[in-house]
Fold this sequence. Notes:
Blueprint: H1 2-23, H2 26-47, E1 53-57, E2 63-66, H3 75-87, H4 90-101, H5 115-130, H6 133-147, E3 150-151, E4 156-157, E5 170-172, H7 179-189, H8 192-208, E6 219-222, E7 229-233, H9 245-262, H10 265-279, H11 306-319, H12 325-342, E8 362-365, E9 370-374, H13 377-395
Helix pairs in contact: 2-3, 2-13, 3-4, 3-5, 3-13, 4-5, 5-6, 5-7, 6-7, 7-8, 7-9, 9-10, 9-11, 11-12, 11-13, 12-13
Amino acid sequence: MKHLLIILLFFLIAGSCQKRQEEESMKQLIDRVMPVAVEQYKGMAQLLPEGQFPRSISEDGRLKTSNKYWWCSGFYPGTLWYLYEYSGDEDIYHLAEKYTEMLDSIKYVTSDHDVGFQLFCSYGNGYRITRCPEYKEVLVQGAKSLATRFHPVIGCIQSWDFDDPEWRFPVIIDNMLNLELLIWVAEQTNNDSLYHIACSHANVTKNNHFRKNFSCYHLVDYDPADGSTRKKQTVQGGGDESSWARGQAWALYGYSMMYRYTKDDNYLNQARNIANFIMNHPAMPQDGIPYWDFDSSAIPDDYRDASAAAIMASGLIDLSKYVSEKEKNRYINFAQKQLRTLSSEEYLARGGTNHCFLLKHSVGSLPGKSEVDVPQTYADYYFIEALLKYKKEVLDE
Length: 397
């Protein structure tokens, strides 16, 4: 009888905990997660060597950092700006300032397409919040540097500088997000050339990166002589014809962003079709956190990618502003499901753990055996961005 009572009590407690979790409103969820994020990111600053930025966790369990030229360097200061925007915490403000201004020289980099990630996440959010004129000057120069990588015959910005001798002009789907720096500066300075470059890149990518079902390749290599496509690959996915989850997330976010700036229905329809591919995919788990590749042969016993889910959620909330009420509800509900899962114990780190990253269980490059099932700085950035978008676009509208 005693054992029976213990078992009954266990199920009552478990049921009560589950009910409380289900009853947590999104406002309560955001108010629960953000203070943890603030403390984690303050703690991160104490762990970082001078001049370094957080990247991930190494194979031996240590904090993995990078210098400012690594493509992820803008995500830490960008997240700090978001956390300051939410909290008003002056310590967070000073950290955001410090780590943003460490990236100043990136504005002259012409050898890398990730200038957009590095500068717009950091200086872009910093300028939006502070209106500091020096920040705008960095963004304008950074956009000019990024534009030097545009090839007029191909109509795209080159991504990598020939990491593979077989490539002549590789363009990766991630590059869609670097366009925001160009198109924002174009609007701020009435620069038609930068606007044309951003739209041209988006149009050529739309024509060549996507399959009939609106899944996308990771990389398309072009011939600079005539702009023709030479090969299509999925370098960080399970195979060239597979649907690498983070690649689909970049695509969704990128075309939602392009519509926000241009109001071109071609971009809106592209984003909607990508969203439908993602949300309706039979391999998408019920909790909304995709496997690292939708076509992995190891599903359901394979790695999930929290970073892909965070990027998707942010893109879906953005997209929800431009569609019918029915579609809006679908996108918001899906994003909410993803954010609830990411805010659960399975994915959200406890304070003081996880080397002060927020999210666990992201996948960098499984084929490259790099940063698998670890935190990623960009996962945290888009997670916090999505929560703030949800607060602004859904709760505060």
